[in-house]
Amino acid sequence: MATRPSRRDEFEIAVVCALSLEYDAVVLAFDEFWDDDGDTYGKAPGDPNTYTTGRVGKHNVVLALLPNMGKVGAAGTAASLRSSYTGLRLAVLTGICGGVPAPGTGDEIVLGDVVISKTVVQYDYGRQYPGRFIRRDTVDDNLGRPNKDIRALLATFETDRGRDALQRGATQALGQIRENAAKKRRRGAKYVRPSAAEDQLFKPEYQHKHRDGSNCGCVEQACEAARAASCNELCCDVAELVPRERLKETSESNDDPEFEIYVGCVGSSDMVMKSGEDRNRIAREHGIIAFEMEGAGVWDEVPCIVVKGVCDYADSHKNKKWQAYAAATAASVMKALLARYIQTDKPSAGDRTGSAASPTPPRGSGAVFNGPVTGKHVVAGQHTSGGTTNISFGN
C-alpha cells in the first residue's frame, strides 16, 4: 500500500478528466484522499490547475479536471501538471467517448464498453480542399508511439491472461464505485447499466431528423430543433436499427461481463463526431475504434494512456443516457490498469541522506580559477600544481 507522499515529486501517476461527470466517477475509485483537510503540496508558479490528491490501490495519484473540453485545454493542463509534479511517469486520460460499433465482427463494440489507446490519431489536423479534407500524415505530423514502459504494459492486456486479470479487476472496481456512490444520497442509481433496449445503433446513413409531415425544412440536413430532440420525439424508425449479436448474447446469459475492454487506435479531434457515415469512413482510413477530444492534447506533454467508456456511437442519434455508466466503467478500468502498473523502486533512507550523494571534496581540491573575467578576456593558458588548476587570462 502506498504511504502518503511528503513532496509533489513523489507522485508518479496522474489522472486527467475533461468533464465533471467523469471526475465524479473517478473520485469514487479512490481509496484515500490526501487533501481532505486541504491541500498540503502546493503547485509551481504559473500553474493554474486545481488538483485532488490521494491513493488508488498501491499508487499515489494526482487528479486534474480540465477547465474545458478539447485538445488546447488538455495540452495546457498537462503542461502545467508536469511543471508541478515533476516525477510523473504516467497520465491516464479517463472519461467518455464515441465508439465505432463494427457490428457483425469479432470487435463488436456496444455502449458501456471501454477503449484503451494503443495509439492516438489527430484526424482533424490537415488541409481542407474544395470538397475534400486531407490529413497531414508525415512522420513529423503524427503523434509518436507511447514509450516502452507503456507499450510493455499494453502488450500484456492483449494476452489472454492479462486481459482476464484486467477484466476481473475492473469488475471489482465498478462494484466499489457503485458501493461508494450508494453512500451518497440520491446518487446510488447513477451508475446502473441502462437496459439493452436503450442501446440503439441506427444504420449510418439514417439521420436523426424530422420526417415527412414536418414543416421545419429537414430535407437533407437536420434542423436545430431536431438535433435537440430525442429519437422517441422524432419517431426514429426502429426498422432502421442494426441488430447486434453482443446484445442478444448479453440478454440470454447472465455469465458474461457487463462490459468488454478493447485496446486499439483512438481518434482525437476538437470536433464532436455526430455522423455515422463520417465515423465509418474515418475509422476505416485510420483503423480507429473510438473518437474523443483530449487525447492528442495530453499525448505530447506527459506519457499517456487514454481510457474511455463508450457512451454513444458518434452518430446523429447520440444522447446522454449512457454517459454516467460509461464514465464509471472507464474509471473502473483505470483503477484495474493501475493495479497492473509496476511501481519503480524508491531510494532507501540511506540513499536519500547521503550514500547516493556526491562526497564533499576536501579543502583545496578541485578547480580554482584565477583572474578577472570580462567580455574582453580570453583564456591564455592553464597549468596544474599541487592539485590546483590555474588559468590565466589575456586580452
TrEMBL record:
Residues 13-179 form the Nucleoside phosphorylase domain. Residues 382-395 have a biased composition (Polar residues). One of its GO terms (biological process) is nucleoside metabolic process. InterPro entries: NLR-like, Nucleoside_phosphorylase_d, Nucleoside_phosphorylase_sf. Residues 346-395 are annotated as: Disordered. GO terms for molecular function: catalytic activity. SUPFAM superfamilies: Purine and uridine phosphorylases. Gene3D superfamilies: Nucleoside phosphorylase domain. It comes from the Eukaryota. This is Nucleoside phosphorylase domain-containing protein. It comes from Colletotrichum liriopes.
